[in-house]
């Protein structure tokens, strides 16, 4: 199992860590950039465009993809076949509850979890995408509005035993982040906070936070 969880920025140290997750050069890695969490807006936010450009500069074989759009266009879309064509599946920031809803609706949650646990793919995520690997998303409602999703789905992938808290130290989010941290810790859930210049790398049972 290999995961790379980001808050916002990508440093040179992060790039070196990413290279260790693949058996090919990063320029040759097939990268799927899932933008579904941004669907709370009728247009792609500037920060998402900037994020995609950052990742494309490292992974030129990046392809953008939206679960909701694929499902609405073709209810019989073969997500399993499509996902299997990529080495690195990365989920953008945005609203975590929009993501959990469409992951469940399309069945990609179960497909992706199996691929991660069998080392068929490296999982990556930023902000909402970094939160998703934990099992219980309900506490993050302090930060994201669940009502923006068609219905509330609180289940994440459940492949890690700690709750990631990205954007730690960012003034606009800090009060909400601290509330989420307290709620998790009251339930004896391990929390790992990480700032916008930090990332968390998971390789099997080894967890490392770095700048």
Protein described:
It contains 8 helices and 9 strands. It is of the alpha/beta class. The protein has one domain: 3-Layer(aba) Sandwich (Rossmann fold), CATH 3.40.50.880. The strands form 2 sheets. A 7-stranded mixed sheet has the order 3-2-4-5-1-8-9. The protein has a two-stranded parallel sheet with strand order 6-7. The longest helix is centred in the C-terminal third of the chain and has 16 residues. The two termini are 21 Å apart. GO terms for molecular function: serine-type peptidase activity. Belongs to the peptidase S51 family. Keywords: Hydrolase, Protease, Serine protease.
Keywords:
single chain; alpha/beta; Rossmann fold; two-stranded parallel ribbon; 19% strand; globular; Peptidase_S51; serine-type peptidase activity; serine protease
Task: Return Rg in Å.
Answer: 16 Å
Tell me the helix content: 25-40%
- The total count of helices amounts to 8
Shape: globular
Order of the strands making up the biggest sheet: 3-2-4-5-1-8-9
For CATH, the homologous superfamily is named as Class I glutamine amidotransferase (GATase) domain
CATH architecture: 3-Layer(aba) Sandwich
Name of the level-1 CATH class: Alpha Beta
User: Secondary-structure element sequence?
Assistant: EHEHEHHEHHEHEHEEE
The tally of strands reads 9
Using the coordinates shown, work out and report the CATH topology.
Answer: Rossmann fold
* Derived structural class: alpha/beta
**Whole-number count of domains:** 1
Instruction: Determine the strand fraction and express it as a percent band.
Output: 15-25%
* Poorly predicted ranges: none
How confident overall, as mean pLDDT? 96
How can the largest sheet be summarized? Answer: 7 strands, mixed
Give the N-terminus to C-terminus distance in angstroms.
Answer: 21 Å
């Amino acid at each position: 199992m290999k995961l790379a969880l980001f808050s916002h920025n990508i440093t040179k140290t992060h790039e070196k860590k990413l290279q260790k997750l693949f058996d090919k050069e990063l320029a040759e890695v097939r990268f799927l950039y899932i933008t579904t969490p941004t669907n709370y807006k009728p247009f792609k936010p500037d920060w998402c465009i900037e994020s995609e450009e950052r990742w494309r500069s490292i992974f030129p074989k990046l392809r953008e993809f939206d679960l909701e759009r694929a499902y609405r266009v073709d209810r019989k879309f073969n997500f399993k076949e499509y996902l299997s064509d990529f080495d690195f599946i990365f989920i953008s920031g945005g609203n975590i509850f929009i993501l959990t809803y469409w992951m469940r609706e399309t069945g990609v949650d179960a497909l992706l979890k199996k691929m991660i646990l069998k080392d068929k793919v490296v999982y990556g995520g930023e902000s909402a995408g970094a939160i998703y690997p934990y099992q219980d998303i309900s506490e993050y409602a302090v930060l994201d509005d669940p009502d923006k999703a068609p219905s509330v789905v609180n289940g994440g992938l459940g492949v890690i035993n700690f709750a990631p808290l990205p954007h730690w130290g960012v003034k606009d989010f800090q009060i909400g982040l601290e509330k989420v941290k307290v709620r998790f810790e009251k339930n004896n859930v391990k929390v790992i906070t990480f700032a916008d210049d930090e990332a968390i790398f998971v390789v099997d049972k080894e967890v490392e936070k770095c700048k």
